[in-house]
Design a protein that fits this description.
The structure holds 2 protein chains of 2 kinds. Chain A has helices at 44-51, 73-77, 95-105, 110-123, 139-150, 169-184, 196-202, 220-225, 235-243; strands at 4-15, 18-29, 33-37, 59-64, 67-68, 80-83, 157-161, 188-193, 205-210, 213-218. Chain A is α/β, with parallel strands linked by helices. Chain A has a domain at 1-79 and 187-249: 3-Layer(aba) Sandwich (Rossmann fold), CATH 3.40.50.300. Chain B has 2 domains: 2-41 and 196-385, no CATH class; 48-179, abc type-2 transporter like fold (3-Layer(aba) Sandwich). Chain B is built from 15 helices and 4 strands. Chain B has a 4-stranded mixed sheet with strand order 2-1-3-4, sandwiched between helices. Classes of the chains: A alpha/beta, B mainly alpha.
Chain lengths: 249, 393
């Protein structure tokens, strides 16, 4: 029986009258890659913000590694790494400085942070540009630095919010390989993406969100089989069938 | 505490990386200092120019008036054609012009009343008012001369004394009187001129420290825009530590600028003793803390960098205007009451006491307590108002 690592129970969050998250519940098992899919405005990012302790849910709670995100935010922060959808880097500083700083903020010593930063930059294929200003990097390189920063401090659970948006195939491939490598090391990952093929290839299980609610959960194959032959139907077909074809923004 | 220090160092590193901002913030005090030196390094005695339209050109009495004006050490006389003077007044190139009417000499010779006319914009400006006073003094002297001559002529009429002789003799008596007047005005020097640098330096220092408000306000909003604020809030860094770090960085940045200004003043104007120099640095440090925390309050409520900058500019300018930074605030006035809510007032008073009046930190303890109080309350309020994002922690 796999260990439940993240348990979200009946999460609600409204902004003024708009219900961004409306009763979201799901479980992520230790060591799995869990995909959270949904159209724009479905509530994915708000859910991640609640789980990463940035936002407080109006109702409901979630536990990460047994700690409540509502009551034990400090402990939860010690377990997670967050790679936000938008680049969140100090562009005037070098890649190395960014990683070391966030490593220190994650509680590492200076020496430990530097050693891990070197390792993470190597992992992301950025060793040669370690001392280059992030401002001068290409979009793909910035995305890889963004991901590398989220790995600082040995997180057990990684939130990846659309980490491959706007990157070239080479950088995207590097990110996929990194994510697979992290899973092999036992890291638990919550992954959001708009690319269904990406989710199909990477994720052990996925949840599809729409209108602030989870409307389907299962392995990619299970979801595909809900609407036809799982070998000929794609996850995108499932997604469009469940969420409709109307434009969302 | 240690993490907040790391945040502070990180902030300063970013500040040092931006060479444009660094050059601007450190060169600005140097430029200000150079301007101050240029403005106050020279003579401080009054010397003005009387702009005159003489419509009585060649007239005996107008020539004598101009001659007497030219004899004054503190006055230069510039004659202008009427059209040019009118045009310059119209464009505010000149604020005051003296017009000598065409019949000035003729009327005086006939013993009739005549007028000198000052045309001025507004109150004529400070220089114009002084020039007008000097000219009024000369006109008064001419009046007296005529009055005495008329009385002499009247008293000696019918005694067979030629009028020319009466005039020459009377003038000789008047000149002797002017050389040895009955009422003489004496000057006694009780100290050197007030040093304008001493008077203005506290205001300039406080103004530079106030830049910390703008920088502090922007730093929070910039982090929010970059997305790093949200990211930091998912690490083990607490909001309190974040604010304490930014507070420390704000102090350091404000203090650095002041340091440049104070060191230059120390070296060039020699305004300080070593002790008063250190005391001024201490006051600037405490004021930088107050300004830094006010910046964080603005950063906590502002949503955009523009908002942060404009709120900070408005606050800074208001404080400079009401606090007597560059002009004295009279005691017992409404402005004095308003100035009490400006932290700048306390810093200004403290620095003036130490720099201009030879006081020490012991004399400004109350001002220092107010500044420390503002720093602490500002820090607490900014923390209370802060949200990572709407609906956030």
């Amino acid at each position: 029986m796999p260990e439940e690592y993240l348990v979200a129970q009946d999460l609600h969050k409204s902004f003024n009258e708009h219900k961004a998250v409306n009763g979201v519940s799901f479980v992520i098992y230790r060591g799995e890659i869990f995909g959270l899919l949904g159209p724009n405005g479905a509530g994915k990012t708000t859910t991640i913000r609640i789980l990463s302790t940035v936002l407080e849910a109006d109702r409901g709670d979630a536990t990460i590694g047994g700690h409540s995100v509502r009551r034990d935010a400090e402990q939860v922060r010690g377990l997670i790494g967050v790679c936000p959808q938008e680049l969140a880097l100090y562009t005037d500083l070098s890649a190395m400085d960014n990683l070391v700083f966030f490593g220190r903020m994650a509680g590492m010593s200076g020496q430990e942070a530097r050693a891990q930063a070197i390792a993470r930059l190597e992992l992301m294929g950025l060793s040669e540009r370690a001392k280059g200003k992030v401002d001068k990097f290409s979009g793909g390189m910035k995305r890889r630095v963004n991901l590398a920063v989220s790995l600082m401090g040995h997180p057990e659970l990684l939130f990846l919010d659309e980490p491959t948006v706007g990157v070239d195939p080479q950088s995207r491939n590097n990110i996929y390989e990194t994510i697979r490598g992290l899973r092999e090391q036992g890291m638990t990952i919550l992954y959001t993406t708009h690319y269904m093929e990406e989710a199909d290839r990477l994720c052990d299980r996925v949840a599809i969100m729409d209108g602030g609610q989870i409307i389907a959960t299962g392995t990619p194959r299970e979801l595909r089989s809900q609407i036809g032959d799982p070998n000929s139907v794609t996850l995108e077909d499932v997604f469009l069938k469940l969420t409709g074809r109307s434009l969302r923004d | 505490m240690f993490k907040s220090l790391l945040v502070g160092i990180h902030e300063v590193r970013i500040y040092l990386q931006d060479r444009g901002e660094l050059a601007f913030s450190l060169l600005l005090p140097v430029v200000t200092f150079a301007l101050m030196y240029g403005a106050f390094g020279g003579q401080t005695m009054f010397h003005g120019t009387a702009h005159v339209v003489n419509l009585d050109s060649g007239g005996t009495y107008s020539s004598r008036l101009l001659e007497q004006m030219g004899e004054l050490d503190s006055l230069d006389v510039e004659l202008l054609p009427r059209d040019e003077a009118d045009r310059k007044l119209e464009r505010s190139d000149l604020l005051m012009v003296l017009y000598i009417p065409a019949d000035f000499s003729e009327k005086l010779a006939a013993g009739e009343q005549t007028n000198l006319l000052f045309k001025q914009r507004g109150n004529g400006g400070r220089e114009g008012q002084i020039v007008a006073s000097l000219v009024r003094g000369l006109a008064e002297r001419i009046n007296q001369e005529f009055a005495v001559l008329q009385q002499s002529n009247a008293a000696l009429a019918g005694r067979g004394i030629p009028p020319e002789r009466i005039e020459v003799t009377t003038r000789r008596f008047l000149e002797r009187e002017q050389e040895h007047p009955l009422v003489e005005v004496a000057e006694e020097t009780v100290g050197s001129n007030p040093n304008p640098v001493e008077q203005f330096l506290p205001g300039i220092i406080t103004m530079f420290v106030l830049f910390a408000i703008s920088l502090g306000a922007q730093s929070i909003v910039q982090e929010r825009r970059l997305g790093t604020l949200e990211r930091l809030m998912t690490t083990r860094l607490s909001v309190g530590q974040l604010f304490l770090g930014k507070f420390q960085a704000g102090i350091l940045r404000g203090f650095l600028q002041t340091l440049v200004l104070l060191v230059l003043s120390y070296m060039v104007f020699q305004l300080f003793t070593p002790v008063s120099f250190l005391e001024s640095l201490a006051i600037a440090f405490v004021f930088a803390a107050a300004a830094s925390s006010l910046g964080l309050v603005i950063g906590s409520v502002a949503r955009t960098e523009d908002q942060a900058v404009w709120i900070a500019v408005f606050m800074t300018m208001s404080m400079v205007m009401v606090s007597g930074t560059f002009f004295p605030v009279s005691e017992g006035t409404v402005l004095e009451t308003i100035s009490r809510v400006s932290v700048n007032t306390y810093a200004n008073t403290a620095l003036k006491t130490v720099i201009s009046r030879g006081g020490s930190l012991a004399d400004v303890w109350m001002e220092l307590v107010v500044l420390v109080g503002v720093a602490l309350v500002g820090l607490a309020v900014s923390r209370l108002l802060f949200r990572v994002m709407p609906g956030g922690r």
